[in-house]
From TrEMBL, chain A:
One of its GO terms (biological process) is transmembrane transport. Pfam families: BPD_transp_1 (PF00528). It comes from the Bacteria. The chain crosses the membrane at residues 21-39, 75-99, 120-137, 143-161, 182-203, 215-232, 239-261. Belongs to the binding-protein-dependent transport system permease family. This is Phosphonate ABC transporter permease protein. The lineage of its organism: Bacteria, Bacillati, Bacillota, Bacilli, Lactobacillales. PANTHER family: ABC TRANSPORT SYSTEM PERMEASE PROTEIN P69 (PTHR30043:SF1), PHOSPHONATES TRANSPORT SYSTEM PERMEASE PROTEIN (PTHR30043). Keywords: Cell membrane, Membrane, Transmembrane, Transmembrane helix, Transport. GO terms for cellular component: plasma membrane.
From TrEMBL, chain B:
SUPFAM superfamilies: P-loop containing nucleoside triphosphate hydrolases. GO terms for molecular function: ABC-type phosphonate transporter activity; ATP binding; ATP hydrolysis activity. One of its GO terms (cellular component) is membrane. PANTHER family: AMINO ACID IMPORT ATP-BINDING PROTEIN (PTHR43166), PHOSPHONATES IMPORT ATP-BINDING PROTEIN PHNC (PTHR43166:SF6). Keywords: ATP-binding, Cell membrane, Membrane, Nucleotide-binding, Phosphonate transport, Translocase, Transport. This is Phosphonate ABC transporter ATP-binding protein. Residues 2-246 form the ABC transporter domain. It comes from the Bacteria. Pfam families: ABC_tran.
Length: 266, 256
């Protein structure tokens, strides 16, 4: 009995030691990194001054109202680029996921190739994609579209592949047992079963891409990211604030709509 | 009609799941396979329509060896072999009638199958089959809203849509309540008697086997240890089938 309690005390002592160690390591990492950057910790204490400046300058005023028209136009562009990239990638992802899923793949090597390809696409950050593509496609909407497209293609292929594998082989075999062909099994069996799951991945990705498209626009010089940059650099802070506000409204709206569609589907 | 000869299968290349299984199934009869868990019942059933590729032996369905067929020949042969499952394996978001119509996919072209282009005759047949299993009023219900017993009856209708010569049933009543069990077993027996279909059923319930089977096959440890008419299934024979390490009674094997 006693030895059991001792054993348990030992166990908790070790756990506490590990936690302390973790905190010490994180603290040391922060101090090391700030020294490397010449970052002054005490400037964090002036954070309220920063906020005050932000409120004074970035709150849209009477003058910035004149920019509404242009902002809405660019916002729409950004939104459309995100939707186009997501839907285009979704169709191709579905195809890749079907022939890549272990339960349906025609050959296991195809599955490995698609798995590798999709994690490659996914693991290149969106900003790196945009920079790479800038070399060949210059600053325009196509560059932004392609950056979002490749990242989404990698992400959705993986997500769809996992959805298909979770679906299992039993029902697939049940249809094969009737003499159904590969394509018939996919269209009559697989797709009806996973349609709702696919749709929620696509909606999630649209939400995500609307946010990312804004950032990518900063680099590719298009859409709402571009005009933010423009207003900001020409010191039109009120208008830039209006851009930020409009982006927030768009993102929240897209999320609300996507939740609504998700609820209607299930 | 269906004769299995010297069937052998190992999943990992080492441990034998089936060793030299031979038996025959006759038209218009209910044949029940019983045996302890892990004996190889599912493996036998899935080898018949080649959902599992076995290692050795012969599966003669209408005098052609299922094991020798190429892809399209296999597809055509599968059209005449219905199959129902413990977990029903219906496409749950689709309606009962759509699931029944899946039974004729094997006879349709790729495109017609993909776009659900069924002929009026096929649609009529599907409705009649749903009526036959007592589910006419549920034709347009999503299968996910049906009870277990109803799902299994949709499964049977799907198998019948294939105009099968034989129906393979892998523990069709294992997830059902007693009343649905009787409904489903009665339907299966009627198919043998009235439509001359061979019905081959894996079961765990010996009492049900005794009541419904014409012919019983006992499997233990990948081997046939009993193969006879149901009348010959004595209590001693049952104990033998479920015994650990039962040995085949050579006199009984190949009797049919
Ligand atoms: N996919 C598989 N991979 C490896 N081994 C398997 C596989 N399926 C079955 N086995 C093995 O083959 C043997 C026979 O299994 P099978 O499923 O045919 O038994 P069963 O008689 O249907 O059992 P139960 O009554 O529990 O359904 C078992 O020892 C099992 O472990
Ligand atoms: Mg089994």
């Amino acid at each position: 009995m006693n030895s059991n309690v001792e054993e348990m005390n030992d166990f908790f002592t070790k756990k506490r030691f590990k936690l302390t160690l973790l905190i010490v390591i994180l603290g040391a990492a922060y101090i090391g990194a700030s020294m490397g950057l010449g970052f002054q910790s005490h400037s964090l204490l002036n954070i309220q001054d920063g906020i005050a400046w932000l409120i004074q300058n970035f709150i849209p005023n009477e003058a910035s109202k004149g920019y509404w028209h242009e902002i809405v136009q660019q916002l729409l562009r950004t939104f459309l680029v995100a939707v186009a990239a997501t839907s285009c990638a979704a169709v191709i992802s579905l195809f890749l996921a079907v022939i890549g899923a272990k339960t349906l793949t025609p050959a296991i090597t195809i599955s490995w190739v698609i798995r590798g390809f999709s994690s490659l696409l996914r693991n290149i950050p969106i900003v790196a994609w945009a920079m790479i593509l800038l070399f060949s496609f210059k600053q325009n909407d196509l560059t932004g579209f392609l950056a979002l497209f490749f990242m989404t293609l990698g992400f959705l292929t993986r997500a769809f592949m996992e959805t298909i594998e979770d679906f299992g082989t039993e029902k697939i075999q049940a249809l094969q047992a009737t003499g159904a062909t590969y394509l018939q099994v996919i269209f009559q069996g697989l797709l009806p079963e996973i349609a709702v799951a696919l749709m929620s991945w696509i909606l999630y990705m649209i939400e995500n891409n609307v946010r990312d498209a804004t950032l990518v626009g900063l680099l590719t010089g298009t859409g709402v990211g571009f005009i933010f940059n423009l207003y900001f650099k020409s010191l039109r802070y009120g208008a830039a604030g209006l851009v930020v506000l409009s982006v927030i409204i768009l993102v929240v709206t897209v999320e609300l709509i996507s939740n609504l569609i998700g609820r209607l589907l299930s | 009609m269906l004769t299995v000869n010297h069937l052998a299968k190992s999943y990992d290349g080492e441990k034998k799941s089936l060793t030299d299984v031979s038996f025959s199934v006759h038209p218009g009869e209910v044949t029940v396979i019983i045996g302890p868990s892990g004996a190889g019942k599912t493996t036998i059933l899935r080898s018949i329509n080649q959902l599992i590729r076995d290692d050795d032996g012969e599966i003669l369905f209408d005098d052609t060896d299922m094991r020798q067929l190429n892809r399209s020949q296999l597809r055509r042969a599968r059209c005449r072999i219905g199959m129902i499952f413990q977990n029903y394996n219906l496409i749950e978001p689709l309606t009962a009638i759509e699931n029944v119509l899946h039974g004729c996919l094997g006879t349709k072209s790729n495109l017609a199958g993909i776009f659900s282009l069924y002929s009026n005759r096929e649609k009529e047949t599907a409705l009649k089959l749903l009526e036959k299993v007592g589910l006419k009023d549920f034709a347009y219900q999503q299968c996910r809203n049906l009870s277990g017993g109803q799902k299994q009856r949709v499964g049977i209708a799907r198998a019948l849509m294939q105009h099968p010569k034989i129906i393979l049933c892998d523990e069709p009543i294992a997830s059902l309540d007693p009343k649905s069990t009787i409904t489903v077993m009665d339907i299966l027996r009627d198919l043998a008697i009235n439509d001359g279909i061979s019905v081959l059923i894996n079961l765990h319930q010996v009492d049900i086997a005794r009541e419904y089977a014409d012919h019983v096959i006992g499997i233990n440890n990948g081997q046939v240890v009993f193969d006879d008419r149901t009348q010959a299934l004595s209590d001693a024979a049952i104990t033998g089938i479920y015994q650990k390490g039962a040995v085949p009674e050579r006199s009984l094997v190949h009797e049919f």
